[in-house]
Amino acid sequence: MPWYVMHSKPNKEELLYEQLRTRNIDAYYPRIKVQPVNPRARKRKPYFPGYLFIQVDLDDLGTSTLRWMPGALGLVDFGSDPASVPDELLKAIQEKVEYANALDKNQVERFRCGEIVTIEAGPFAGYRAIFDSRLPGHERVRVLLELLSDRQIGVALSVNQIRQQEQHHSR
Questions:
Q1: Beta strands 116-119; 3-8: pairing state
Q2: Residue 144, exposed/middle/buried by CB under 10 A (0-12, 13-18, 19+)?
């Protein structure tokens, strides 16, 4: 059975997810752990705010059932055809979400100001930089890149885009 993208009303993803589960509809609601500023705020946020994935036989269930479900705005479609999601893409999303949730949330703490790091992903992949500071949001950091004529430029990155420079000890 194919996977489809379900559009929820604003901030109603949780309600819609429960509605789908109550009706025994296979649903995937990707959420990531966050460190909110307010301790009473949600500790998990939607990875795709306003969207969930469902696996259902539309010939069997019908799209109107999904459209009128509490919290739902219906299926995402192109023209009159519901948009299906290839299994490979859904698996890649699941892996990305699992990876994000498995990250050590204190990962930023291991970097020290002035430490040399290597950028592993993004347009500056392969460059060395100097760790400068943590940015608001537990997974954001600022590094200083040395570019032309020894000028340093601050760049904001996700903490998972950098790694500590390996130490080489000499005798």
A1: unpaired
A2: middle
Alpha carbon of 78 to those of 31, 75, 108: distances in Å? Answer: 25, 10, 41
> What is the distance between the alpha carbons of residues 53 and 89, in angstroms, rounded to a whole number?
11
- 129 compared with 146, residue with greater pLDDT: 129
Q: Encode pLDDT of 142-164 as tens digits.
A: 888 877 666 788 888 888 788 88
The rounded distance, in Å, linking the Cα atoms of 42 and 46 is: 10
Q: H or E element: which one contains 75? A: strand 72-75
Give the phi and the psi of residue 143 in degrees, each rounded to 5. Answer: -120, 160
Sign of CA dihedral 48, 50, 52, 56: negative
| Residue bearing tokens 């050590």 | 104
Is residue 22 within a helix (H) or strand (E), and if so which, with residue range?
Answer: helix 13-22
Q: Which pLDDT belongs to residue 163?
A: 85
Residue with tokens 């890649």: 92
Class of residue 148 by CB neighbours under 10 A (exposed 0-12, middle 13-18, buried 19+):
exposed
Higher pLDDT, 133 or 73: 73
Q: Hey, is 11 helix, strand or coil?
A: coil
